[in-house]
Specification:
By secondary structure, the protein is of the alpha/beta class. The chain has 5 helices and 5 strands, in the order E-E-E-H-E-H-E-H-H-H. Keywords: Cytoplasm, DNA damage, DNA recombination, DNA repair, DNA-binding, Endonuclease, Hydrolase, Magnesium, Metal-binding, Nuclease.
Length: 200
């Protein structure tokens, strides 16, 4: 599975592409940071991010997209820029028919280092080791994007396959997976009697 992961930001947007499946060695495809000048108007900066992201999608043709979930922060302008970039990436992925998964920073840290409280240095060290890199990816935005990609391969990828399996069952049978009957409210009569039930 090829994952394109984005650590969204308006000034610096980390992007990483990783190949892998759960339980096997991961491979770095490319990592980088999209930068926009802080002095430029926001619309111009968003277009610049979109143009760069379009190249990443075209160059690597990912199978899924992972984005770090926006969380509340005291710096409103930072949160706004992060949310705007997140929206751009989500729209692009949706138009390409690619599944998008949001992961929280805590989920990413736990998946990569085993602790949701790991600091950036610990996460970067684990990313370097897990991908077999000669040196740590820099800046931090690049390392964060790769950590997000690893998290998605190990966690989100598995969930995506489960969701797809459920969808396939529904498409084939028109019933809920596993033959689970629909819930009938207490006191209501089922439209179809249970197997072996005697008619009243």
């Amino acid at each position: 599975m090829r994952v394109l992961a984005v650590d969204p930001g308006l000034t610096r947007c980390g992007v990483g592409v990783v190949d892998g499946v759960p339980g096997r060695k991961l491979t770095l495809v490319e990592v980088g940071v999209i930068r926009t000048p802080s002095g430029d108007p926001t619309p111009k900066r968003l277009v610049a991010v979109e143009d760069e992201m379009r190249l990443w999608f075209a160059r690597h043709r990912p199978e899924s997209v992972a984005i770090e979930r926006v969380f509340a922060d005291t710096n409103v302008s930072t949160v706004m820029g992060t949310a705007q970039v997140t929206g751009i990436v989500m729209i692009m992925a949706e138009r390409l028919g690619l599944p998008v998964t949001l992961h929280t920073p805590t989920e990413v840290k736990a998946a990569v280092s085993g602790s949701g409280r790991a600091d950036k240095a610990q996460v970067t060290t684990m990313v370097t080791r897990l991908l077999g890199l000669d040196k740590a990816p820099k800046p931090a935005d690049a390392a964060d994007a790769l950590a997000l990609a690893i998290c998605h391969v190990w966690r989100g990828g598995t969930q995506t396959r489960l969701d797809q399996a459920r969808a396939d069952v529904l498409a084939r049978t028109g019933t809920r997976p596993g033959g689970i009957p629909r819930r009938v409210p207490p006191g209501a009569r089922s439209a179809r009697p249970l197997p072996g039930a005697q008619p009243r």
